[in-house]
Specification:
Type II secretion system F family protein, transmembrane, cell membrane, transport, GspF/PilC
């Protein structure tokens, strides 16, 4: 507890001063007090003219730590360890270069744990939200084998690849979701604000309205009267979806099974899960993690309940003496090529290399499919949105065209 307290006592001071040749300088200095900050600057040959505590902004807490932050940290630490920089000093350098206060604070806490005698794996394990079981297991294997720099480089490459695939899938799904959201918003706006104006105008004419126009007018009346039910239904539906996905294993299992059966998208999610399985198992096996223990870690990294259950079944079979390729084929889930590559890897003693090749192939497949999906969805979404808005516009102008033809 005392160590954490000492970290919290550090404050940031802004200063203005002159150096040994009289040049005006300014900057920031961390210290427990302004006096200690002045002493440190004086030791560096700077005569302090003004010094004051830096004010905290409304956003001083910093943004949330992302997977990209962890990936970048892994790459930086691997580079410094490979260059011979001591671990504590490497943490200090990386921490000082952080623009996110939350990330800097976490690195400071990890560094303090290391200084107290904990291993890197133990120190990182105290932050399970950002350093999962797979990450800590690989770091632990690297420390025991004396190849921590190589393992950190492998981890960095692994996280960069997985985040790249996740980013591509999210990007492909974000565009149609955003367009549909805008389309729904525009439709509601037309029904609530625009259609009533046309309705008042048509009422003053006293003419019979076409069927399409009547349908849109009825929809407008219903929206104006029950808009709160529609809004509540949308919000409640999203909340219920998120809630049951996190809390109900049956719902998550059914959702993952259903997602794999969706045309086009299901194929992308399937290939992504196969790629994660292959990449993760290859990485753990290459790091010297026993196969059974590695499969246990892989089960939590595949990102799909269906694949997780399959991997856990494979783990049970392998632990009783079955070959990996035989256990994979028994699940009926993995493609024939993946099973054969695993078989070749087991027979040749290059399982990690073979699985890495499988991961490369399926990651490329996912990348190509996502690019194709993006190109396919753009015209489809535009046609749907254009058709929706177009129907409403035509419905509103049909009575005008009808009256114009009479006159």
């Amino acid at each position: 507890m005392a160590k954490v307290q000492r970290i919290d006592e550090l404050q940031t001071f802004e200063w203005v001063g002159i150096d040994k040749v009289g040049k005006k300088m300014k900057g920031e200095q961390q210290a427990k007090s302004s006096t200690l900050a002045k002493n440190e600057l004086r030791r560096q040959g700077i005569q302090v003219k003004k010094i004051y505590k830096k004010r905290k902004s409304l956003f001083s807490g910093g943004k949330a730590i992302t997977a990209q932050d962890i990936s970048l940290f892994s790459r930086q630490l691997a580079t410094m360890m490979e260059s011979g920089v001591p671990m504590v000093q490497a943490f200090e350098i990386i921490e000082s270069g952080q623009s996110n206060p939350r990330m800097a604070k976490m690195l400071n806490e990890v560094k303090t744990e290391i200084q107290s005698g904990s291993t890197l794996a133990e120190s990182l394990g105290k932050h399970p939200v950002h350093f999962d079981e797979l990450y800590c297991n690989l770091v632990n294997a690297g420390e025991k084998a004396g190849v921590l720099d190589e393992l950190l480089d492998t981890i960095a490459s692994y996280k960069e690849r997985t985040e790249e695939i996740k980013g591509k899938i999210k990007k492909a799904l974000f565009y149609p979701a955003a367009v549909l959201f805008v389309a729904i918003g525009v439709t509601i706006l037309l029904l609530v604000k625009v259609v009533p104006e046309f309705q008042n105008m048509f009422t003053s004419f006293g003419a019979d309205l076409p069927g399409l126009t009547l349908m849109v007018v009825d929809a407008s009346k219903a929206m104006q009267k029950y808009w709160w039910m529609v809004l509540g239904g949308l919000i409640g539906g999203v909340w219920a979806f998120v809630y049951f996905k996190k809390r109900s294993l049956k719902f998550a299992h059914a959702l993952d099974r259903l997602s794999l059966k969706i045309p086009i998208v299901g194929g992308i999610l399937f290939n992504a899960a196969v790629a994660r399985f292959s990449r993760t198992l290859s990485t753990t096996f290459a790091a010297g993690v026993p196969l059974v223990e590695g499969l246990d870690t892989v089960s939590g990294a595949v990102g799909n309940v269906v694949f997780r259950d399959a991997v856990l079944k494979i783990k049970e079979d392998v632990s009783t003496g079955h070959q990996l390729q035989l256990s994979m084929s028994q699940t009926g889930l993995f493609p024939h090529m993946v099973v054969q590559m695993a078989s070749i890897g087991e027979e040749s003693g290059n399982l990690d290399a073979m699985l890495a090749k499988v991961a490369d192939y399926y990651e490329q497949e996912v990348s190509n499919a996502v690019d194709a999906l993006s190109s396919l969805l753009e015209p489809i979404i535009m046609v749907l949105v254009g058709g929706l808005v177009g129907v409403m516009v035509v419905a509103m102008y049909l009575p005008i065209f009808k009256m114009a033809s009479v006159f």
